[in-house]
Amino acid sequence: MRPQNEWFKPEQLRRYYFAYEVIALAVVLAVVGILAITGILTAIQPWVLLGGGAVLVVVFGYLTWWIPTFYRTADYRFTDDEIEYRRGVFFQQKTTVPYNRITNVGISQGPIQRLVNVGSVGIHTAGYGGQTGAELTIGGLGDFEDIKDQILAEVRGRPARATEGDDSMDSISIRNVPDDESSEMLGEIRRIRELLEQGRTA
Q1: Given phi > 0 = left and psi -120 to 50 = alpha, else beta, which region is 177?
Q2: CA distances from 52 to 55, 57, 118, 176 (A)
Q3: How many Å apart are CA 55 and CA 51, to the nearest integer?
Q4: pLDDT interval class at 189 (50, 70, 90)
Q5: Which of 21, 41, 120, 174 could form a disulfide with 182 if both were Cys (CB 3.0 to 4.6 A apart)?
Q6: Who's near 130: CB < 8 A, 6+ residues apart?
Q7: Quick check: 106 and 97 in contact, CB under 8 A?
Q8: Three-state DSSP state, 135
Q9: How high is the mean pLDDT of the chain?
């Protein structure tokens, strides 16, 4: 569990990105090896080979520099009211997500992430503007399941709030409302949302 108001790094992010680079390099070397075995490589003009080799050196050299540089800029923290995530090598970005706007927290782990035993946490917010994907995704986490549980623990018990742009809906709490009234209230909220969406698409 992460203490509040302290900055932390996605500790496995550098390892995760380097795994991608190693796999990409292995694929390039395999292709070059196949071309050499089949004799295609010897039929290519030397200046083409030299230019292609120079491009590969520049690309992989840049990636080798960029990965640890990006890692040094990536930090996240949990405050009393929100999650903050900052990162960026050339352009600094900072994303802030209040707990009372979070509707869903998901985790994902692809094949390469499983290879290096890391995962990502995706945080979705309560917008009604047809938003797809996560509002905030933090990758390269070794304890991604614990991070998800910590965020959900902060979200529970807080009144939900939906926003779009600068407009916001009043906080709604139905924890102490009887079941029949809460069902009616939820139905009314759904009808209001449908009317809002129809008006925006008209």
Answers
A1: beta
A2: 5, 9, 33, 68
A3: 6
A4: confident
A5: 174
A6: 197
A7: no
A8: coil
A9: 84
Beta-carbon contacts of residue 174 (< 8 Å; ≥ 6 apart): 182, 185, 186
Burial class (CB within 10 angstroms; exposed 0-12, middle 13-18, buried 19+) of 54: exposed
Q: Are 154 and 99 in contact (CB under 8 A)?
A: yes
Q: For residue 93, what pLDDT is reported?
A: 94
11 touches 141 (CB < 8 A): yes
pLDDT, greater one: 162 or 36: 36
Q: Is the dihedral of CA 182, 187, 191, 194 positive or negative?
A: positive
Say which residues have a Cβ less than 8 Å from residue 143's Cβ, sequence separation at least 6: none
Whole-model pTM over 0.90: no
User: With contact defined as beta carbons under 8 Å apart, do 16 and 140 qualify?
Assistant: yes
How far apart are the C-alpha atoms of 85 and 147, rounded to whole Å?
Answer: 13
Residue 133 DSSP SS3: coil
Using a pLDDT cut of 90, give the percent of the chain over it. 60
Give strand ranges (E) for the chain: 75-78, 82-87, 93-98, 102-108, 119-125, 136-141, 163-164, 167-168
Angle at 132 between CA 131 and CA 138, to 5 degrees: 110
Is the backbone of residue 52 left (phi > 0), alpha (psi -120 to 50) or beta?
alpha
